[in-house]
Predict the 3D structure of the following.
Amino acid sequence: MMIQHEDALVKNIEVAAAASREQFVVLQEYVQMMAEQACEAHTVEQGLWDGVLALGRALLGEYFLRQGSGDVGEHVSLVDGRSVPRQGLHTRRYVSVFGPVSVERMCYGEGKSEAVPLDATLNLPYRDYSYLLQQWSQAFAVHDAYGETVVQLEEVLHVGTTVRTLERVTRDSAADVPGYREAAPPPAPAPEGAVVVAAVDGKGVPICRETPPEPVGRHRRTKGEKANKKKMACGGAVYAIQPFVRTADEVLDEVLRPQAHTHRPHPQGKRVQANLGGGKEATFAWMAQEVAARNPAGTQPVICVGDGERALWTATAQHLPGVIEILDLFHVLEKLWLVAHCFHKEGSAQAEAFVEQRLRRLLEGTVAGVIQGLRQMATKQRLTGGSRKTVDQVTGYFVHNQTRMCYDEYLAQGYPIGSGVAEGACRHLVKDRMERTGMRWTLEGAQAMLDLRATYLNGEWEAFWSHHIHHQHKRLYGHIDPTILKQLPTAA
């Protein structure tokens, strides 16, 4: 019986090889015909691409045939000491970037397939989709909605998939992100003279509510009841940057007028991360590790830029003791606009002048004077109601954060005073992918996407997938005696 199978396999290889050569000839003839007809280049390009996919599919099928069936004898030894018998040939589907192909291989086991030597040798994935297709599809998915990724794969590769399948692949691969982070080399120390910056920001992610059993006779939600709620993702960014000394006038030009400096230094070695389940604790613990790696000797200045949320500064004191705490200037600017509109009409020149004058004084270090002046102004103009409450809230915010508002000193040292880099990174990491119209996430699915997206944005995509594939092989095939796999015959 096995001799008959081997003879059939050799014949199938010959047929497949002939089909591959024929497909290549078809492509050459296609090019010649298109040249004779002087067809438009984009039309030829599309035809060639479709032909290349067909050729790749034919060659991949030939490759699998040449690997043989993975028959290593009557039994296969497992690392637990058992020896399982040969069951017979089974066919599995392998969906590649060229399209689906079939792989026939010998399975071993008692009652169920416990070992498939060919799958182990070729490191075939658990799911039908090849690792390369998984990697490419996830590279699409970390940028676009799953539904859009399905369309893109069909449009570019002519490969059909589903949103549910992509979600499962995201969870499968993201499960290895924590292990990859632990095994990855630490970031390089910051360049000499650079400032190490840790910045944090929060963005809401729409989370699906767990659906309770519907009461009898109830067919819709009550007024004000929502199908989902937002959970705050705490995003952090750590990077190094060269000091950039500026004056108050230069900062005003950057913030209030479109005259930003073009010679501003760029962040170096920026890494981002966001956490839902662990929230602030997990993000700050990660930032502390990053800061320690970038400042191993403890000789470089380390600053933390954030908004006025007390919980953030409490976490900063716990995880990053001794850092220079700086209140993000853009949050300060938002507060000044709120106060300005208590005294002047929105959009008026008077409101703009009000903000510029107070911002300049803050940048020059007269925080106490600004606080006192705002309170006196509110009293003299006899503000009441919501306007007076706004002034009191803003001045209280400044009082609480006064020690983090020494902007004249920060500017003289060349420190960043805005969390624009972190907010931009967090917005790009979280909001731009997780808060699109109509999106709803489970906690597990949202964290999986955040982990993969951060890995991609940190420039670690290829290294992570190598790690993931290696560990998948251990999980799927680590129970098979490796000496058996070295004896695997091929039909090439």
User: Anything to note?
Assistant: The longest helix spans residues 2-36.
